[in-house]
Amino acid sequence: MELSGIRLFVVYLLLLSIDAQSPQPQIRWFTQKVDHFNPQSNQTFQQKYLVYDKYWIVNESKTGPIFFYAGNEGPIEEFWNATGLMFEMAPQFGALVVFGEHRYYGASVPTANSFEFLTIEQTIADYALLLSSLQSNISGLYKFVSPSSYVQTVAFGGSYGGVLSALCRIHYPWIVDMALASSAPWYLLLGLVNDNSYYRIITEVFQSYNGQCVDIVRSAFSSLNQLLYQWKQFELVTNLFGLCEEMLTEDEDIEWFYLWIKNAFGNLAISNYPYAIGSLPSWPLEYGCTVMLNAFWESSDSDLASIYALANLTNYYYFNNSNYPWDTQSHCFNTTKDFPFCSDHIWCGTGVSAQVWNYQQCTQVVINAITNNITDMFPPSLWDIANMTSYCAEKYGANLNLEEEIQWMRIWEPQDIVETGIDKIIFSTGMIDPWSAGGFLSNNLSYDMPVILIEDAAHHLDLRWSNPSDPISVVLARKEEIEYIQMWLNKDFSIKKIIMGGKKKENNNDNGVEA
To answer: Which CATH class for the 197-404 domain?
Structure first.
């Protein structure tokens, strides 16, 4: 399976390893509009979506809700396998589970040779039209369901998908009744927090395990700067880190080599779960600290001890991640192949999804996570918005202005959303997740816009399958999320909802869609 980058809001395949067996989905296709905002356009494409109806209750006395996952940056199967909470909740609510694939990812490709219609607005319009059709066809297929009845819909999403689930509720409240947005880096997306927050949190979590580990990392990079920039000891460092030849031969390679190292820390922090995933152990970032300490004290060369310790951490991560295969012929790490140059210096990934994410990073999803060696343990970044703008303009068009894009995205500032009267969105944030830098960390935005802060939780851990090793904070957070959803589903619909619900039944998109 190809890799799609964290890409923003980071959905590494290692995060998507399944803890419990996901049910087998029904694969379906929806005839979707290529351009929702041009009434003269009749172009269409086939959008992939997955369905599971084993727990769905639909009879004369009750129609269960739709639990809809707003797919993010990757093939939809990745998120199906990772989002166990929806399947655990579905029997309680008698829900129909639906996962919608994001346009241009996986098999849902509107246009083959350009990303002209790749925007957040087009994506959430896809989801709204798909849901509207599903809701309409329920009454068409089941004659005992009144055409005027309202099929309640709950949107779910994690990371970038969390942003999308919330935006579905914000822009299409007559279709999406409520949303759970987990680990949604909203403030980073809007450029409302410092760019160095992501790596600051990684450093703080590492510090909490053992402050000496942070000291070792700082010392290692200081020594590497000397070895590489001053003494040009490229071959020595290449051998210490197990790199392939030609990976480090000149100064221009050093920044990318450092990013490759930082990528290991970022992935360990994002997947810092209380149970093993694949070949990574439980609490893998904490274990990485132990790996470094052991290597540091075992080193026979005191001058290189910190570098040796850092190399052991990167080897520990990359050897235990099948996404970075060890070159069995050359017996080395090919950093250029594993970590290709792109707009997202956290990591775009490889494969087709990486190309799509690269474009999104150059247009709307503009997040530039940097380091400064003051609030974090890493050397200062050389990549800034100016560099990113230059790269994106050269690759996609001279008229791109990332500063303007960031300003434009601020139409979605949280307080402005609250003032519009939108409600029923849960924002959950894991407090050891580096993406919490852009998450909601304050009190509830409003009575029906709760913010749930989860201690000891990494990236959207609350959406994953339950596990006996889950911290009590995660167990309680899931309980609170379910209670909010139950309360909102039980509320009587307002007159506005009933009227709008009736309107959305008028759907002329003949897709042959089954619900």
So the answer is: mainly alpha
